Write the structure tokens for this entry.
Amino acid sequence: MSTLPWWRDAVIYQIYPRSFADADGDGIGDLPGITARLEHLRDLGVDALWLSPFYVSPQHDAGYDVADFRDVDPLFGTLADFDVLLDRAHRLGLRVIVDLVPNHSSNEHSWFQAALAAPPGSPERARYVFRDGRGDQGEQPPNNWVSNFGGPAWTRVTEPDGRPGQYYLHLFDSSQPDFDWTNDEVREEFESILRFWLDRGVDGFRVDVAHGLVKAQGLPDADLSIDPHVDTTTLLPMWDQPGVHDIYRRWRSIVDDYSEDLVDVWGDDADRVLCAEAWVQPSEALSRYVRPDELHQSFNFGYLMTPWIAGELRASIADSLAATETVGAPQTWVLSNHDVVRHASRFGYPQRPGLARMPGIGADDPQPDAELGLRRARAATALMLALPGSAYLYQGEELGLPEATRLPDDARQDPTWERSAHTDRGRDGCRVPLPWSADDPSFGFGPSALSWLPQPDELGSLAVDRQDGTEGSTLELYRRLLTLRRSRGLGRGELSWSDDQDGDAVAFHIRSGDLDTVVIANLGPSTLPLPEHLTPLVSSGPLDGQGLPPDTTVWLRHLHRP
Ligand code: GLC
């Protein structure tokens, strides 16, 4: 099989530190908890883990509001705990990617505190986006932008003399002031932060809100009728501005300088990587982030938002592969993360054509069909893990965890719930602490019964210890898929579509060296006959004598070929 850098076909597992494993029993996951559970990831068969933020933070947005980019929050441990985690992961053959949050800081960051204490026009304010308001008394915000979590994107400050003063921009919560990336001081600071973590030995960065750093000059009003997550044509003044690419060219040259540094750990396959979180459509615009001198990867959110409808999935796959091919980058595939409704629940609803981001689900909303959702989720994962390129998994999906849809509203912590004036339940439902052992308090999440979000009772039956070694469990399915993906070189193969592309199947071949793997997903209501000259390698659910049942994916090989 071809020698390609590791990241071109890596399977990367997202850890959401507060919900993975809690070593000290305070009900919030931590770095020592992660270190103690790393074997789970080795046994699963992933290549790398990505850690959501564990930096010093007042936790108004679960750590995506960073007050010190160079230290660990005491909730999660210490820098020494981080070093132990990194070393242990490397010894187990797992790379470690950390989250970089360059669009904004916490309002408790020392720079923002200094900006509040300094007058308008000062260098301290120039690190953020402070502007005078509109109207005679400055009573209107500087423009009409809204926060991603709901409500205005501007908050007015009280000046040091006690009078109402300027506004600062926050594309997210008011506790997350946006940096001004036209300011060289900001650029230099982030280059230094990159080097700080590279020097510690991390294998790369996931770049938060990578499409948001640069804003259109003059900060013009936006067309608020556009949903930037799904709109495929319109450029909004806060997203995907051409200037972001200069930043990524610079960062690429920095991480490339480090690619020799970890040779004692990884031999000559020691690239450090950058992956963009950029909610940008269409695929062709997204592919600009992964040109050869920019980032290595970008999350394929178009794929994540594609419904479980055969024609739409075929188009999404074809379009995604074509887009990254033009720039020579690998495509990435993802179905779940800490910001979206888990795919085992998304797919438990009737599927409608078109891209869509689903708002959080509450107890009084229509509930997903759990059984159907899980069957489709397993089929969707089996389809995804066969695709060439790199894939991202989100903690708990290997257990088939559903979204927690009946959390009490007063337990919710995502700022979206308040900021949307209780119109969007937000993202807590996919962030519930993991179940490790069915019979222990907090299902083995930690040594105590505490859990920062309540764990639904049904989580027990999905605990790791219930699924480990259990034939047909989702955990065993993921292990088998990942083993075969590796041994058959699927991530580094070439996709060709099977001849019959109509109807309810998604069917293709992956050729990798001598190996030819046939992948068929049945998204329709009736069983599909399977060709006789093929033998199954793995399927997402039981096959019946007649063929491939609805909402099932199978990988097969030719009877007489490898
Ligand atoms: C990204 C993160 C999300 C966070 C937001 C603001 O979208 O994935 O969790 O709330 O950025 O930092």
